Amino acid sequence: MTESQLKHLKQYWQSMSPQRREEVAAKAETTTAYLRQVLACGRAPGAVMAKNIELATGGEISRRTLRPDIFDDQKAA
What we know:
Distance between the termini: 21 Å
Oligomer: single chain
């Protein structure tokens, strides 16, 4: 993950209301504490969790941003 991507994730986390954080965590089937570790601290989630976060955020945070090592479409080409 690049520095600019990490900065974007931190800004996204900071822009979320506590209620929105709870909603996204529930949709992603995780806790707000874990979501904070991923979005604000740069922790790499597992593949399933990266997909869950992408779905829970409506695609605002993509699984490719969270785990480019796993979901890099260009590697498949």
